[in-house]
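ESCALATION

Customer reports they have been waiting on this structure for their group meeting. Please prioritize. Original submission:
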Amino acid sequence: MNKEKLIDRAQKYIQKGYLDKAIADYREISEMDPADISIRLRLGDLLVKANQKEGAIKEYGEVARIYAHKGFYLKAIAVYKQVMKLDETSLDVHHKLADLYTRQRLIVDAVSEYSHIVSAFEKKGKTSDVLELLKKMVSIDPENVGLKLKLAETYKNSGYKEDALSEYCWVVDRFFLQAKLDKAEKILLELYKSHGKEPMVMEGLCELYRRKGETSRFSDYAQSLLDVYTERLDKEKMKALSKAVLEVFPANEKARGILRNIEAGEEAKEAAPPQCGAVKEKASPQAGEGVISPQGSVPKETPLPNAGGKEKSAVLPGEEVKKQEVMERAGGERGESVPSTYGEEEFFEVSIGEEEEAEVLEPIEVVEEVVEEASIEEIIERAGEEEGAEAPEAGLEEKEEEGLPAMPSLAASEGEPAEKEGKEDFVDLSKELGLEEAVDKIVSAWPEGEARETVEEIKAGMGERLGHEDAETHHNMGKAYMEMELFADALREFKISVQNPLFEFDAYTRLGLCAMSTGAPGDAISYYLKALKAQGRSDEERKGLLYELGLAYEAAGNSVEAVEMFRTVYGTDPEYREVSDKVKEFSEEEDDVPKDDDMIEVEFL
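Update from on-call: job pushed to the front of the queue and completed.
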């Protein structure tokens, strides 16, 4: 029997409920034509219906492998997600999904998959495997503060104190940049208990209390840090920190004495005669050497060791700054700097003074005759009233997070652009589009008992990352999920892609279709009304959208709005789908059905 006849017979078996016989036929077809992936997918679906999960997983897994091998990563992901519905504990599938997501630069999803594996390894006590995975996660999302915190905590619990210190200091640096001083303080005070003599920690505490304006605590840690620098004979840092202390406490004898001795030694060295026979050359200053300008500033950077032994640069202090200026803490609008080892940003450094078009649519003309129907403008206007606001034009209008302290005007870290004032706040947008729930779901993989602050930072980092990931990739991923009838996953993808005006209409339309498929006509109506307001769409697209909106109203039990949508579509194309039957169905009498000669003439946008 040939392939076509086997397919026909299998379909008849399915209609009669003979799933086992249909499965047998599809297996035979698959053996006849192994390259036909659609047959294997259909076979997997039948195995699921027959409650033969192991067989279904095997078929789906083979299809996903073939897709991945051919470079169809999004389709492979969708099939693997189908496997996860059958067995969400499969670490092998989580691994494969994480790898595929990484290839597609869907970093949030990749991190989510890896987090499932981390959780499983932690429960089994596989600490070394957990560390390796966390390092991999950090490598693909290096700016996620929460992941860095998780890595630092794991290093600490595993006894790798220096590695933990390095990661914690990176986190503190980012907290400084984000003006999250309380979070930075919590970490620094914990580090001080175990690394009291570590300059990195003490420098961080000095910087913290300088920013907070707590001069007494700044003085305490600065005095202790001077002792550490003195023990290490680090004259450049002693000199820089002494100047910083004198800016706040001009009468501090300890700092003044250190500065006097260092400067006296420098003067004596400069006054010493050249050795006999030596040729005096004008050498350029080396790393770590201060260059004294006529004004007394020392702009040369000094290399500082970090926890790993590598050198980092810190700018030495410049011109004298008045005490009251030092005490000002509103964004750091003043003077020069003192050394630090925190990340790429100079400790105490504060910069001075740094800080396709949619087509305009013509109004439509509505000629009312016998039946009074709503025009497209009226439907759109009502859509805005029902939604309470205009549909979000994501990505076009920047928002500012409320309640966040003003970002200090710090010099940007090397290789990183300075933060722009008024930067779009993805968290607000995620709340508007329902993405916050999606991010919650993503971080739910982390084990119970995880530090709340760590999870919050991971979540914040993922929300920020989602706002910058490629909208087209998410949109295509959503379509792949729809094909596999993974509507919940598709909903999340379209909620991300709808932020881009290029995908706004299609994303809202597909969100409505997904909502209808999951039995949520109310949500579908909301999505369709937003799609209706998208500009630049064709007559055919608008007509199809109004028909879907009519179906959603019908499913929601709102017959008045439903018949209004159907009659509007009928007036432009009486042959469109089943619109004629729909109009008749909602008419109380046959005579109420609008005739061609007395319908509203509607000119679509």
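Sent to customer with the following note: Residues 253-271 form the longest helix (19 residues).
Escalation resolved.
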